[in-house]
Amino acid sequence: MEIAVGSTNPVKIDAVERTVERDEATVRPVAVDSGVSEQPRSVAETVTGAENRARRALEATGADYGVGLEGGVARLEGTPGLSLIMWGAVTDGDRLERGAGPTIRLPDDVAARLEDGRELGPVMDELLGTEGLAEGAGAVGVFTDRLTDRTAALGQAVACSFGPFLTNYYDADS
Ligand SMILES: O=P(O)(O)OP(=O)(O)OP(=O)(O)OC[C@H]1O[C@@H](n2cnc3c(O)ncnc32)[C@H](O)[C@@H]1O
Ligand SMILES: [Mg+2]
């Protein structure tokens, strides 16, 4: 089984590899355009980015599945502040499934910098004096004192978008 991932960010590739380890898949990174802004700012835009990446990765490779992962920030109904969200999408060329990773509220000073139109990755690097934090533990790692990290968090989005292809519980869906 070959799985194309619409990104070359090592943290996304790792997240897919670790999640599908059991199924002995070959994971192939492919650079694609997400078709949304560098920093998606709503659930809808984040999901669209993941969908575009999944479709484009499949088209570019002819793999069995295309996987897209997208990070975003959003003000969520029922919770205060600005949240970091992440979504996954998987397609086999026919069906497309979507599933989310965890959500975490961003500290107010980080939220304020994002409201100025900036991207989370660079804002985190500036704040912490790091380089490429988004390709390692990620903001979710830092803000949880490493109880989780970006690989594990994105892995949940992979499980919830790819997993439905592996069961027959969805077979009756229209
Ligand atoms: O190369 P790609 O696949 O685009 O990888 P990316 O890190 O840019 O990931 P996204 O485009 O999906 O994420 C949109 C923005 O949100 C940032 N982001 C998302 N999750 C993050 C995290 O846990 N830590 C730091 N930045 C994060 C990311 O760096 C981007 O600036
Ligand atoms: Mg990006």
**Average pLDDT, to the nearest integer?**
97
Q: Count the beta strands.
A: 6
Would you give the CATH topology? Maf protein
Q: What separation lies between the terminal Cα atoms?
A: 25 Å
State the shape: globular
Report the order of strands and helices. EHEHEEEEHHHH
Sheet-strand content, in percent, reads 15-25%
Given helix and strand content, the structural type is alpha/beta
Biggest beta sheet attributes: 6 strands, mixed
Q: Taking Cα atoms only, what radius of gyration do you get, to the nearest Å?
A: 16 Å
Concise description?
This protein has helices at residues 10-19, 43-61, 108-115, 120-128, 138-143, 150-166; strands spanning 2-5, 26-29, 65-74, 83-91, 96-100, 104-105. By secondary structure, the chain is an alpha/beta fold.
Describe this structure in words.
The chain is α/β, with parallel strands linked by helices. The protein has a single domain, classed as Maf protein. It is 40% helix and 20% strand. The chain has helices at residues 10-19, 43-61, 108-115, 120-128, 138-143, 150-166, and strands at residues 2-5, 26-29, 65-74, 83-91, 96-100, 104-105. Strands 1, 2, 3, 4, 5 and 6 form a six-stranded mixed sheet that branches. The structure holds inosine 5'-triphosphate and magnesium ion (MG).
Topology (elements, then pairings):
Elements: E1 2-5, H1 10-19, E2 26-29, H2 43-61, E3 65-74, E4 83-91, E5 96-100, E6 104-105, H3 108-115, H4 120-128, H5 138-143, H6 150-166
Parallel strand pairs: 1-2, 1-3
Antiparallel strand pairs: 3-4, 4-5, 4-6
The site of inosine 5'-triphosphate has 18 residues, from strand 3, helix 4 and helix 5.
